[in-house]
Design a protein that fits this description.
Blueprint (H helix, E strand, L loop, with lengths): L1 H31 L6 H29 L2 H29 L3 H15 L1 H30 L3 H22 L7 H29 L9 E4 L9 H9 L5 E3 H19 L11
Antiparallel strand pairs: 1-2
Helix pairs in contact: 1-4, 1-5, 1-6, 1-8, 2-5, 3-5, 3-7, 4-5, 5-6, 5-7, 5-8, 7-9
Length: 277
Amino acid sequence: MGAAFFASYLIGLRDGLEAALVVSILVTVLVRSRRRDAVLPLWAGVAGAVLCAAALGFVLTYVATSVVSGVRLELFEAFTSLVAVAMVTWMIFWMRRSARTIKSELTGRLTEALGLGKAAVAGLAFVAVIREGLEMVLLVFSAAQAASETIAPLLGMLTGVASAVVLGWLMYAAVARVDLGRLFTWTGVLLVLVAAGIAKYAVHGFQMAGYLPGSTSTAYDVSAQLEPSSWYGTLLAATVNVTPSATVLEVVTWLAYAAVVLYLFFRPAPRLSPAHS
């Protein structure tokens, strides 16, 4: 339980910190613009995003535990894992692209929203937070399935979010001094490894359901050295999905995703030619 809790705690903390950072920027702009009247609608948008993310978590858990079983459960978990990989991959490159400009972009969008009314401010806050919330729920759900636990990952995620809220409150006073480039780089690398593990889990699900070949082609088996129930075994499975044994296709998927996405993530952005500058 401890390792599964810690793995989900890291996910909740990471996504919660990014959401808290965005909210801190928005609140700072409102306060400095002397538009405190729009702070309440902003928090209403944040609350709506949190409720939607919680609803998704409830639906996923209910379907996985009460509606489907057997092959259908394997397929359901595999498909939700693919959705999580797609969303996380998009978030990784959004962070890379927006690290240097997120403050100015949010300020510009909030200024436009203020001109449209308080409902637009609530909508902006909702959209800004819901991306992190949905990503977090999908990641924790996939991690819980990989670790074959439910309560510990849920508690870990909630504790991580609570910690992020406290840190976000502390960041509020120093939001202008946060090095977003470095923050997004390190969290992006963590996300790549987590997403690689989820992609591997999706392949495992499709193999178990008989939709992909190679379920008996074992790439490695270190069950004697890596105890699945140990704290380190659970931690590795719940974060990057390193398991005591894996098929060749699972390993190839993990390595291929991590290598390609890390290469693209760290590749220098192309410079514009003089004709386009």
